[in-house]
Amino acid sequence: MGDREYQVLYFGPQHPGAPGNIAFKLWLDGDRVVKAEVIPGFLHRGFEKMMENRTWEMNVTMSYRFCVEDPDHLEIAYALAVEDIYRAEIPENAKWLRMIQAEMGRVASHLFWSHFIGGSVGLRTPAYWAVAAREEILKWFARISGHRIYHNLSVPGGIRYALPENFKEETLRVVNFVEEKARDVEDALLRNSIFKARLRGLGKLSGEEALSLGVTGPVLRASGVKYDLRVNAPYLNYDKVRFEVPVGSAGDAYERSVVRFKEIQQSLSIIRQSVEELRPGEPLRVKLGLSAPAGEGVARVESARGEYMIHIISQGGRRPYRVRLKSMSMPLLTTVVDYLISKEEVTIADFPVILASLDPCPPDLDR
Amino acid sequence: MSILDKLVSWARSRSVWMIHYCSACGAVEFPPLVMSPLDWERYGYMPAPTPRQSDLYVGMGYLTKKTVKLFLNMYRQVPEPRFVAAGCNCTATGGLYWDSYATYKRLDDFVEVEGWVPGCMPMPDDYFSLLEYLRKKIANSRIETHISRIKPDAFEKIARYEDLERQWLKEYLEKVSKQAGEPINYQFTPSYPDCYEVSDKHKICKVSVERDRLRQVLRELKEQDFKLFININTVDYPDKGVIELYYILENPETGEQKWVKTFVPRSNPLVDSVHDIFPLALYIEREVYEMMGVEFKNHPSLRKWILEGNWEGPPPLRKDVDTAGFVIKTMYGGYRYGR
Ligand code: SF4
Q: In chain A, N or C terminus with fewer CB closer than 10 Å?
């Protein structure tokens, strides 16, 4: 494709419609996007290298900083992988608390996403509600861990802090509040005729296509593939709670929104069940030694954006030999965008909407 | 100041507009700040969609080399009066990423900074004090002082760092070419189709193949329902003289994973590209190429991607590339910095 025939436009990184600090080079024919090329790297810090230079416990603070919208799953995955190296069993209490943490993180991430998708089609009011509901979760996190966004709560061996008083009541209060607000946002978005008109049929992916592009997570499930690591390869205590895995069928941007809102409700139900299992006063942490045995540790978790995997190689000693982090957003920003643009007629106005409906997290592509 | 000047300054202090550019971690605290519950707009603040309408730029966190270049370019479009403020620790000291090869450590190396907001990450209320401070300053001082200037040697500095990186790359390549003849001491027995290691807990089965059979094996596995391409893991062993590669495939019905292990010698790190079997490999291979220096035969666009504009030196994930040492030498003047 010769550059002369098309107008070339840079979209992002400084653009209100870009999903973060990432750019796209777009080739336009009129207002139709005929080709897009992602330009990453604005957020690259080299985590895999930096983690080799830090000790096991220092790495906790590094392990989750490359997806600021959903740090909890990354943190838990790191802790699980290190426990895998140490061959440590953590207390049941800690497992349940980690599940609460993970699901709270997922709800916060999905609420944050509804702020993006609302903004991308000009529906700003529900976005305000979503941010307000997420704020409640952040405050809850601040109460149990001292931090709003980055929590350092799950460390190798269990949970770092003792539970505050009234933990159960507080959690249930937050869950009830968020549930109500999430339903409001859901109604205001999904029933809105503009929202429907803009999103229905946009960015369609069939299940087979999504799989061959390497997609996991809510985007894959919206295309009708019932695949969720919490069910298919359970970790923590996910095999002991009851919940549904919401799947869609159409695989378009609207269906993805529906699936994410259903997931919020399922996550809240998991939190309710897990809170009941907590035994206050019982230990939350086992002590692991400072230097790890030689070996490999793996953890796979279902993050808010799909499968996340971490692979750590230890040769003994206080530092990992090699850490490999999987990027959840890599397929969403690369293969999926390429494919959708080659297949359907995407206009420049729809491009940010498609991106928002995929919910990528650019820093996790860059790492 | 005349009455009119005062009035103008007062009015300007009540409408500080900021570039809507979410450059890093810290940006995630802005929605609560700007929307509900804190609602900055009642202070006359607004996120401006273009630099040409804005008064304020806040560096919201770590400054990767690519972002700094973009920022300086963008900042030149901001009309005066204009301010730069630095949010987050990373912008002030390098913070957590003090040894990162891809970030610059201080914003005021490149541009004059008016206000600092410390914290990792700063609470939304901390940004309030920044706004308060700016409002006072704008209302009570002369407009001529309201310019954060780009430092005169900002671009030279960037060029100097890049030169050092290129020089290191040259040295590294020379060193590698000298080592090329060294024999590898590495045991490898292909196990495919059997697993040489199984983990029931994670549902992982690892198989190993030689690199010339890799494509064929991946194709066979794809037909056996391992359709989902997850990742390529690479591990560098300089003492053994090899780089190990793990291709990770997943079965989307059962959740099982197959890890296909192979290796390339460090002196000739070449392996067939599999992007025609798994489209996602096109991008992951590019990442592996720039980070680990493994080359892929028949790959259509094997060039820098994430590191483009961030790093000119040797592939950073190689074990004999001490990026932290390099950063300490070039950015902190050789001080050992606790290592
Ligand atoms: S100071 Fe903390 S929150 Fe801010 S950019 Fe650095 S790591 Fe992120």
A: N
